[in-house]
Amino acid sequence: MWGDAEQVCEEWGGYLASVSSAFENAHVASYAKTVLKTSVYWLGGSTYLAQDNPYYNWTWTDGANMTYNRWARNQLCVIYDDCCLIQNSTDQYCYNLVPPSTTPWPGNCPDGWAYFNKTQKCYAPVTEDGGTLLADFNYTRNWCINNFGADLVSIHSQEENQWLVEFLNKQDIGASWIGLYNPRVTGKWEWTDGTPVDFTSWGDSEPAPNTYCTFLIMNDYPEDNEYKYKWYAQDLDELTAGVCELPAKGNTQPTRKPTTPPFSNKCDLTWEYYDLTKKCYKNMVFDETFDQCRASCQQVEADLPTIHSVEENELLINFIVLSADNEVGLNTWIGLYSPNLDGNFKWIDGSPLNFTSWAAGEPQTLTYSALLNTQGSARGKWTTLASDYLVGCLCAKNSY
Q1: For residues 178 and 153, is the Cβ–Cβ distance under 8 A?
Q2: Burial class (CB in 10 A: 0-12, 13-18, 19+), 304
Q3: Residues 345-390: pLDDT tens digits?
Q4: Other CB atoms closer than 10 Å to residue 256's CB: what's the count?
Q5: Which residue from 4, 254, 351, 352 has the highest number of Cβ atoms inside 10 Å of its Cβ?
Q6: Boundaries of each C-type lectin domain copy (predicted)?
Q7: How far apart are CA 371 and CA 97, in angstroms?
């Protein structure tokens, strides 16, 4: 157990490991894998409830503040539980020590939050330096989580939808992220807080295919604005405002998704299954050369990914951006190579090259390998690159 591990470290004059950067996270994971021969191990993170703060906080047992984190998706419950931290490869999970807290918020809502009696919840726009913060979906959601133990808003009725629009109009916010997302890019939309999708207000021809997240239109101008109150699907790197949601005083904390790591019976633990390809994927969250990346994949009985349609290309882009660290892994090796350095490329698994997404001027000759770009004007395009460059590493393998 976590307490036993921490005690052993203290007996040796130390603490369980703390992690303060993406580089350090990668180093710890690499050390555990190569020296300890394990991919699952305790870290020194734990939650506590500060006496002068109504919200749970994370800290390291060596006394350092948790200024960097690499939480796995759906680990929002850690805000509400007394937990300690387990790491699997480079994904961090919460391990419950006690049942969830049901401590109500002080007052009806925290200072500066608006209360809606129909939902008995509190709402606040995402702000920074006194102004509205425009950020991508993941950053906005993390702001709600890290600052208040909140989540992006979920909406379950037309009345709630309209109230939210009027509330945010008063903040001069014309569009806002809401917590509706498409985590596997399969068209199965979910609320980030785990509540059921029992109401929608999609705009015409929405949700758009191969999109990940949703924003709500609030604009009042013109008065007959046909987009007002409607939801529109977007890529998660769009920059827009956001709104957080909390339960009000007297309500227990909302039901969260399980704190165990997400698991599909079609894939190993920490791998993500996509029905479109019938394969499992894992972002290794390391910058590696082409050969290093392929070796890392083969160590876990996988290989570099192959892509055979525009839908698969878009799926991998969204998965990479979702699972990659902010500092590494955004442009990623794919399993396309030119064995004779003549510009003729083929897939490493021998499958047909029946789809390509080359950038202008590509493929280049005298280059061996190719990568998938996930950001900026080159998003979705493939570019050739010398195989000794360090870029992100994504692995794929067949499902069970």
Answers
A1: yes
A2: buried
A3: 999 999 999 999 999 999 999 999 999 998 777 889 999 999 999 8
A4: 21
A5: 254
A6: 1-94, 118-245, 276-396
A7: 42
